[in-house]
Amino acid sequence: MRAPSFCSIAVGMERTHLHIVGGSSRSRAEQAQIAFALGHHAEVYSELDELLERSPGEGIILAANDTVTGGTAGLIRRLGEAGVSLPVVITADGFTINDVVDTITDGAMDCLVLPLELNALARRLQRVSAAAGPLVELRRRQIEARTRINQLSRREHEVLECLAAGKANKLIARDLDISPRTVEIHRANMMTKLGAGHPADAVRLWMDAQLRAQTMPAPVGTMPMLRPQIVEPISIAPMQTAAEARMSSAPLLRRA
What we know:
Layout (H helix, E strand, L loop, with lengths): L5 H5 L6 E5 L3 H13 L3 E5 L2 H7 L5 E5 L6 H11 L6 E5 L4 H9 L4 E4 L4 H32 L4 H11 L4 H8 L3 H15 L4 H12 L2 E3 L20 E3 L3 H5 L3 H6 L1
Parallel strand pairs: 1-2, 1-3, 3-4, 4-5
Antiparallel strand pairs: 6-7
Helix pairs in contact: 6-10, 7-9, 7-10, 8-9
């Protein structure tokens, strides 16, 4: 079967804003040239701090695997702390199977082997863009929830965690070794800071703050180290947290 040409792949592609960060200046320039050839807009950043100064609100981040200390997990954490929820694709000269599994598990959408190849990048960007919506929304909710929850005092945070576990005020008071009246005061302050009009709203924020993306590695035969540039996209699906499972216990929340 004849492989599709670049023209057939490029037709109908939406213009994407690519943020290329980390790696050597030559590598960044080569990636930008390919992005421009595909009709996309590209900006390059020598380090993550330059990107965070811009705080981009759209596009896809192509980040070198050694951009920050802590690898992909550290990168995703830094982006989240800065309020950036864009999908991330990690680039490197090569990946082992374990590298790919770890990278995807830590929150990246995909792995790309350098140097990039025109047609392969076009196909992969289409698929990443199509799959990115749910993940970006997941991260946006997580970032917003964590920002609100970080405003809470230690005791207010403890009360919220107990409330999310379905505990009534008397049980919270016993667990925290404080009076029920003190629990009511902390709970009222917590609700005000979170902007929650109902206990269920506060619990939902707590649940959103715990959200993670459950990702499955691509089949071994499509790992970049074995077949560079033909890695199939990784499927992204929300993972039900323990707190979400407890939400089915509606009487507990109503009792609170």
